[in-house]
Structures
1.
Amino acid sequence: MTNRITLDMTRRGFLGTALGGAAALAAGPSWAAAKTLNILSHKVHETVLGTGTDNDLMKDWKAKNDANLVFTTFDSNPLQDRLFREASLPSTDYGVGYIIDNRPTADIAKLFAPLDDFLASAPIENYDDIAPGLREAMTVGGKTIGIPVRHATGGLFYNEQLLEEAGISAPPATLEELIEQAKKLTFTSKDGTPVTGMIMASDLAVFPVSFARAYGGDYITKDFKLLPKPEAMEKALATMADLFKAGALPRSYATTKNDDQVTWMQQGRAAFTMITFARFKQFNDPAQSKFPGRIKAVQFPKSSSYDGEMAAVTESWGMTIPANFADKDLAWSYIREVSSPRVTLGMARNGNGPVRVSTYADADFAAASPVAAAEAKALATARGAFPPFPEAARAQQLFLEDVQLAVLGRKTPAEAVESMVTRITPLLPS
Amino acid sequence: MRTRSLAQSLPLIAPVHILILSVIVVPSIFVIWLSLTKSSFGQAPTWVGLENYVRVLGDPAFRGALWNTVVIVVFAVHIELAVGLAVALLFASGLPLRRFLLVAVLAPYAVSEVIAVVMWRFLFDPDAGPVMLALQALGLPILDWSFEPTHAMILIALLTIWLHLPFTFIILYAARLAIPGDLYEAARIDGATPLQAFRRVTLPLLGPAIVVALLFRYIFAFRIFSEVWLLTGGGPARSTEVVAVYLYQEAFSYNAFGPAAATAWIMVAASLLLAAGYVLLLRRQVAGNAH
C-alpha cells in the first residue's frame, strides 16, 4: 500500500483541456445580454428604478434591447467629477451620466451630446408634461443637454408627536410661527430625549437661501444678481443666529450634514428640519424611525412681513449622453424609457421626486404619498439655490463661510452680507 | 571582480528606472506643467506662468490652511514622538502581557482612517458622545469641537496622534531592542542613575531612529486629510482647514486644476522646508557613520 496520491495528467493533457475549454466558452452560447449600457449615477437613481426581477421598471426595455444596465454610483460631488472626467477623454464606455442642474456651464455643456435631434427623431412621450423649469435648467445656449429625471424640492418636516407634547396643534403657517415653535420645542421630550427645535446642515446653501426667500430676498438670481435684497439676507442670518443662540439649532450646527438631519428626526432629537419631500418615506419607515407615520411635511413658510410669492429651493438631476460615447442611440433609448410616464410614476412610488406634472395627478400615487400635494405646490414655483456659472462652487463655499460665521455669532449679519458682496461679486460672470 | 560596461548594466537597471520615470517623474512634470496653466473641464489649458502660485500664496484661505497644517504637524508629531518613545521604553523595560499589549498599541495602525474618524465622531459627539457624557458626568470640561476652532484642532491632533502612534512606536521600539544590554550593565557599574543611562546611552543610540521617525512623520503629517475632512470638513467656517483639504477643494470642488497643482508643489516645498533641519541632521549622521 502506498500513501502517495498521484495525478494522472500530463502537461500536454492539461494544456489541451485548458485550450479546448477556452475555445468552447468562446464559441458557445452567450448567457449575458448582447449589449451593456454603463451608467454613471448616484445610488438613488439606480434604486428608484426598482430591484429584483418583479420590481425592475426597466425589465421590458432590457429584454427588447437585449441590453444589460451596469450602474457605477458615487455621492453627488465625486459623481459630477467622474462624469466630467469621463466626458473629457477621447472616448468613454459610459453612455449615460446623471448631472445636477447647477453644474452645466457653457464649457461643461460642450462635453455632452445635444439631445434636440434625438428629441425630434425619437421623441419622449408627452415631453411637455415634464416641468418647464426643470427642462430649462438642462438647456444651455439653446441646446438641450439633459433630460430631467429627478427633483429634490425642499419642504418643512415636523414631528407631529413632539408638537403635540409641547401643546402645539398645527404646524407653522409663517416663518415667525416656525421660529416661535422651534424655540418652544427645544425641550426634553416625555421619553427623556433632549430635543432641539430645528436641525439644518451647514454645508448646503438651501437653508440660508430658503430663509432669505422667506423674507423676499435671494442669494443669486437667474440673471446673476447677487443678494437682490441684502436686507432680506441680513434678516435671514439674524433669524438663524437667534435660533442658534436660543439653542433651537444644535450646538454642532457647523458640522451638521444632510445625513444628521435624517437621523436626528428619526430619533426624535429634532422637531423640525428642511429637506427634500422625497425623504418622507425614510422618516416614516417603522424599521428606521422611532416615529413612523408621525413625521409630516408642509411647504417652508414665508415671513408674514413679505407679501410676494416665495420660491421653494429645488435641485434637479438630468440624464446626459457624453459626446465621446459611441452608441448614442442605445443611450437615448434608455433615457426615453426612463422619462416615460410609466417609469416616472414607478420611480415616484419608489421615492423619486417626479419631474412630470401628471404624476402628481395620479390618484394611487397621491394616496400613497401624503406629501404629494404639498410637493406639487412647492414645485410649481421652485427654482435652484443658484444658477450655474464657472465659479459657482467657490462662490457657494464663500457664501456658506459667511453664513456660518453669522450664525455662530462671530460676525454680525451686516458684516456677513458685506463680506459676501465683496468676495462673491468678482466670481460672477461679467 | 569584472567591471560591467554601461551597455551591459543598462538592461538590468532599466526596469527600475522605467518604473520610477513612469510613476513619479512623468506625473510630477505633468503637475508642474498643469500648475503653470489655467484649465478646467471642457477648457483647453492656457499658459499663465506663475499666476497660479501667486494666486494661491495670496489667498488668505490658503495661508490659514498652511498655518493650521504647520500647527498640527509640529504639535502632533512631537507629542507622538514623546509618547511613542515613552511606550517603547516601557515595553523594553519588561511588561506583563507584553504580546497582548503590543497588539493593542499597534491596533490603530490597522484601522482604516475613515472608520477611525467615524468612531471618534461618535465618541466625541457634542450632544450624545460617550466620551463627552463621561467628561460631563465627572464635571470636567468638554471638547466643544463643533463650535470652538481651537477645540476642533485639539481633537484633530489627538486623533492623528492616536492613528499614527504605532508607526513611531515600532521604529523606536525596534531601535531600543537593538541596543546591547552590556552598555546598560557598564553604565550601572559606573554608577549611572536610570535618568543618566537614558540621557547618555539610550538617547544617543536612538538618535538615528528618532530622526528617521520624525522625518517620515513630518512628511506624512503634512499631507493630513481624512482626519480633517471627515471630522470637521475644515469648519467651522474653514477655521480648521488644512492644505490637503484646500487642494482637494480646488481640484475636485472648484475644478481649478492650475491652482490645485500649484498648491501640490507648494505643499512639497513647505513640507521639505519644515523637515529641513531633520534632513540635515540625518545627513550629518550618515556622513558620520561613513567615516
2.
Amino acid sequence: MSFPELSEKVISVVLAGLLFGAGLPALYAVGMRFLAGTTEYTADGRLIETEGPSGVMKALAYVIFAIIVVVIIIAVLWVAKDFMYHTFGFNLFGLADNK
Amino acid sequence: MTTELIILIIVVLTALAFDFTNGFHDTGNAMATSIATGALKPKVAVTLSAVLNLVGAFLSVEVAKTVGKGIVNLDAVSHDNSGLMLIVFTGLVGGILWNVLTWLLGLPSSSSHALFGGLIGAAMAALGTSGVQWSGVMSKVVIPAVMAPFVAGLVSTVGTWLIYRISSPVSDAKKTSGFRWGQVCTASLVSLAHGTNDAQKTMGVIFLALLAAGEIDPSADIPFWVKASCALAIALGTYWGGWRIIRTLGKGLVEIDTPQGMAAEGSSAAIILTSSHFGMALSTTHVATGSILGSGLGRKGAEVRWGIAGRMVVAWLITLPAAGAIGASTWFIGHYINVLTGSGWLGELVVFLILVGFCAWMYLHSRRAPVDSSNVNADWEDNGSQDAGSIKSSKVGA
C-alpha cells in the first residue's frame, strides 16, 4: 500500500466516522435540546426543568429522532445488501455483488 | 472414520472454540459503557449483545473469504494438505491461548490480532519467512492497528464535545434518560457490527481447514452449517460475558456518563461498519478502546487513567508476536512429535491436550478473584494489581 493510497483510505474512514459517528450522536443531542423546555440551576448546582417543551419543539425533536432511525435502518440494510440479494433475490440499492 | 477426518473435526472444533473466546473477549467493546452507566443491567446487556452478534453473523460474508488469503502464503503449502492443517490448527491454538490469558488479566486485546498472530507464527515455523505475505500483514494488520485508536479517538472526542455542548441546557434527569436510549441503540449497532466482522473470521478459518482436507471446492460458497455454528459460537461466547474485560473498559479507563457512552459507541459503530467498505478493516477492540478514551478526552474535567491505557497499548503491541510465538512453538511440538513417532495424529493430540490444560489452568486461576455480573461495576481501586480490574480480594461475587 503506497502512502497516497493509505492516506486516502484513512481520510475516507475519518470523514465517514465524523459524519456518522460524531454527526448522528450530535444530531440526537439536537433532538434532546428541542425537548429540553426551560431549565435552571438549583442552588446546589443541579440543572432542573422548570417548564416542559412546547408542542412545536416536541414535534421538531421527534422529526429529528425519526430521521436518525431511518438513517440507521438504511445503514443496516446496506450492510446486509449482499445477504438479502443472495437469500431473497432482492437487489437493494442495486449495489449487491452480482455473482 | 479416517485419521484425516478426525483431525479435521478437531480443527473445526478448535476454530469454534476460538470463536467462543472471540465472543467473550469482545462483549465489552459493545456493552461495557452501557453496563458501566447502568443503561442496561449486566445480564440484559450480554443477552442483547449475543442475539445481535448471532444476527450479524448471517448478515454479511464479505470478510470471511479474505481471511487467510493475503496473510499466509497458501501456495507454499498447497502441495501438502496435512501441513496446512497443522498450521491452521496450531495458529488457532496460539490465538485461543493468548485470548484466554489476556482475558485473565482483564486486558482488551484484539482477537483478530491473536488469530492472525497465531497463524503467522505457525506459518513461519512451518515454512520460514516466505510462508507469510508480509505486504499483506502490513496493509491488513499492522497499519490498521496503528490508525484505529487515533481515528476512533478523534471521532469520539469530537462527538463527545458536540454532545455536551449541544445538550448543555437539557436538565440532568432528561440528559441521563435520553442518552440512555441513544447509548443502548449505538451499543446494539456495535454488537451487530461485531457479528458481521468477527464471526466471519472464524468462518474463513474453517473454510481454510475444509479446503486443506479436500472436503470443499475453493470457489464454493461457505456452507450453511459453518455459518450457523460460527454464529452460535460467537453468540454463546458473548453471552458468557468476559466480565473481566467489560470491567476494565467500563470502569478502568474512564468514568463514563451516559452522553459519553453514547458518543463512544456511536463512534465505534460508525467506524467498524464503514471502515471495511474503504478497504481498511479496523479491529473492533482497537476502535472501541480508542472511542472510550476519546469520550474521556472530549468531556471537560473527565479523568482518563493513562496507566490503564498504557497497559492496554503494551498488550496490543505484544498480541501479534505473542500469539505468533505460541502458534510457532505448538507447531514445532506437533510437527516433531509426528516426525519422530511417524504418527499422523499424535502431534495434534498433544497440542490439543496442551490447549485444554492451559485453558483449564487459567480458568481455575480466574476463580481466585472472580469478576461477574454482580461485581462488574464495583469501584475501581488502582492498586497496580495485574489481576483483572483490581477487585478487592475474594468475597465479592462467586
